[in-house]
Specification:
Blueprint (H helix, E strand, L loop, with lengths): L1 H16 L12 E9 L3 E10 L6 E9 L3 E17 L2 E16 L3 E4 L1 E12 L3 E12 L3 E13 L2 E8 L3 E9 L1
Antiparallel strand pairs: 1-2, 1-11, 2-3, 3-4, 4-5, 5-6, 5-7, 7-8, 8-9, 9-10, 10-11
């Protein structure tokens, strides 16, 4: 009974923490924390803030995992197609500019830049869900493929987020939305 209880608690905690691997294409106010793996069992912190230069929907965000060094992404996104309807689902398509970074004690600071499209699909499956993904090309040092995928469940005013991204790996988080 003890092992089963621990397993259920561990799975529940992982699902309750969610992830921000691929933020939605649309900008939203969010702040949260979670756990990143295999980034050395790191504490994951995130924040997002929308803004509208010249009336365009845009947003910025920061994701960072701290533990055995610091790894993360500074993210700028622009919503290009804000309201595509696909059957009973609602989709958004945008672009992103991501600045991945890493700092390790003996290795110093590593920086990069990546650019590509980002898409989100909102579905209603008992609760509002958003599936998001991005794929781009980056440089620093050398060329690389930048990718992320995520699932976000909205439980107003919080969201559970699960995902995977090239910089941080698999991570889960709990976001506060306002």
């Amino acid at each position: 009974m003890g092992a089963m209880k621990r397993l259920v608690l561990a799975i529940g905690a992982w699902l309750a923490l969610g992830a921000l691997a691929a933020p939605p294409a649309y900008p939203e106010n969010a702040a949260g924390l979670g756990y990143a793996h295999p980034a050395r069992g790191a504490l994951f912190l995130t924040a997002g803030l929308p803004f509208a230069p010249l009336g365009l929907d845009a947003g910025g965000g920061l994701e960072a995992a701290v533990g055995g060094g610091v790894r993360g992404n500074l993210d700028l996104g622009l919503l290009v197609f804000p309201g595509l309807t696909l059957g009973n689902a609602y989709a958004e398509v945008g672009g992103y500019l991501r600045l991945p970074f890493a700092y390790a004690s003996p290795g110093g600071l590593g920086l990069g830049v990546a650019l590509g499209p980002r898409a989100s699909l909102e579905v209603e499956a008992g609760l509002p869900l958003t599936l998001s993904g991005s794929l781009g090309i980056g440089y620093g040092p050398g060329f690389f493929l930048d990718y992320a995928a995520g699932l976000r469940a909205y439980l107003e005013p919080v969201a559970l987020d699960l995902g995977y991204d090239r910089t941080l790996g698999l991570y889960a988080g709990l976001l506060y939305l306002w």
